[in-house]
């Protein structure tokens, strides 16, 4: 059983070089001072902001920059590309008709990174 996740939760990506903050829009989510997150809160640049620089060779920008640098890994600006919803979600708790997200949920980026929470934004409420 994990902690609920709200807007403002801190995240990290395994290939990112900086932390990021989860943005949760308040649409049909008025259960606390900050809106609760759902598995659908995975839209790049809306919910998921960049993680600084990306180090994944699966990212075409990183691969091109690394090739131009004669094989020396050259990080490039992060462009998050979530490859699905937050998983596994909490199906017992619905927010706006969608399963809630707890601090144990993870999101996979198309460039191979694993996005996870470092701070849920709601340290006292378990789901």
Can you walk through the features of this model?
7% of the residues lie in helices and 22% in strands. By secondary structure, it is mostly beta strands. It has one domain (1-127). A hairpin with a 5-residue loop joins strand 7 and strand 8. It is elongated, with a radius of gyration of 16 Å. The model has no long low-confidence stretch (mean pLDDT 91).
Largest sheet: 4 strands, antiparallel
> Could you tell me the mean pLDDT?
91
DSSP strand (E) fraction?
A: 15-25%
> How does the helix and strand content classify structurally?
mainly beta
- How large is the radius of gyration? 16 Å
Helix content: under 10%
Low-confidence stretches: none
Total helical segments: 1
* SSE run: EEEHEEEEE
Task: Categorize the overall geometry.
Answer: elongated
What's the N-to-C terminus distance? Answer: 6 Å
Give the strand tally.
Answer: 8
**How many structural domains in the coordinates?**
1
Q: Strand order, biggest sheet?
A: 2-1-8-7
Helix/strand layout:
Elements (H helix, E strand, L loop, with lengths): L9 E4 L6 E2 L31 E2 L5 H9 L7 E2 L12 E6 L2 E3 L5 E3 L5 E6 L8
Antiparallel strand pairs: 1-2, 1-8, 3-4, 5-6, 7-8
Quick recap:
The protein has 127 residues and is mostly beta strands. Helix content is 7%, strand content 22%.
Summary tags:
7% helix, 127 residues, four-stranded antiparallel beta sheet
